[in-house]
Predict the structure.
Amino acid sequence: MGRITTDNCELLSKDFIDPAYLREMQLCKLQSIVRHAYENVGLFRSRMDKLKLKPCDVRELKDLAKLPFMKKTDLRDTYPFGLFAVPKSEIVRLHASSGTTGKPIVVAYTKDDINVWNEVMYRGLAGAGLSKNDIIQVSYGYGLFTGGLGAHYGAEMLGATVVPASGGNTRRQVMRIRDFGVTAMMCTPSYFLHLIEEADRQGIDLRELPIKAGVFGAEPWTAGMRERIEQGAGIEAFDIYGLSEIIGPGVAMECRKHNGMHIYEDHFYPEIIDPDTGEVLPDGETGELVLTTLSKYAMPMIRYRTRDLTRIISEPCECGRTIRRIDRISSRSDDMFIIRGVNVFPSQIESALLAIEGTTPNYRIILYTENGMDNIQVDAELRPDMISSDAEKMEKIRKKISSSIESITGLRVKLKLVDPNTIARSEGKAKRVFDERTAK
Ligand code: ADP
Ligand code: ZN
């Protein structure tokens, strides 16, 4: 831990807040953010008016459930500045997310919003045991994407030495990890895997270097992937979650118990809903995460539907933090595809693949149509030492992986074992699914 000043001590103690006091504080903050959004965001006001609701109808936290949802399309439809709730002169930063389809979305921050973002990143990094004594290389993309700058300022607030590497130039990234004695990395899990491979190619064993931790997020990753990362680099991996619409990375992050991510619920109020009915589900049940920004004034989000599937873990964490946790985000509901009536998430395929010895997390999923039927092909790379000219041996591995996938997804897939290094490596968020179906 770095020098504890009265200020940062107070910030860190927020993770251990008395739950009854936290609920009171959340209600106060909720009431004022709802009023702020009502008075300044036309779209929100008109939806509230339609439901005959006024900000004063939020008397208890559970009244939140009466309020209308916001969705990604709201950001697209009001592009670029339609949801801003403060005069432009108060906005100190813009970020944008490309999204997967259509128009980009733009998000805005006041100076105070930026401070909240730095604070949550700081709390997360401190919770991972990092301090001013660390050298943190940030290899999330810098620029309009929230990953780079979000991680950067949080690490700086910690007092760590920050290496603003951004993504790309993978050879140099590895060189710097070694030459600078980097102790922690922040990037997407898929990019870190790429770095492990590159280190290997350069004859560098990351396990022998000072690097001891990695803070990975911005895309879904499985327990199997974590194992490969931790073993491959000899580090402790931390899951971090966030999204541009809410603030960027730092909405929730794992502590050293690695049993779900603590959500900074004094700033982001979580609900889990049934994605079909919109009904609020009790803690512990899996559904779609809905977030309300309690402290963000430039662009308040009230009941924002994230499309991310998880559950709230309200049992106390062994680390002593009282703020609740969310479980690993297994998938975005948008990532799900339906093949012959079966719902499949890419993460299921990843888990099934990595359950087999000798596989690697380098894979792609191709959806295609054959004779009018939807099919899945999975291309997977094996560890180079697993490749053999013995056709029978290779067929045995192929069958093993296929049946692992079949038993997890219930689907028989076409599995192709491809040569090492033939699947494109990602420098940011990995693209794994290629939908080539004629009718989607
Ligand atoms: P985009 O929507 O363009 O991808 P963002 O960078 O804001 O823009 O991405 C946020 C999304 O990334 C989240 O809604 C979630 O689906 C995914 N994500 C972020 N962190 C994680 C994580 N730790 N685990 C799983 N998914 C994550
Ligand atoms: Zn904990």
Remarks:
- The domain at 337-435 is CATH 3.30.300.30 (GMP Synthetase; Chain A, domain 3).
- The chain has two domains: 1-334, 337-435.
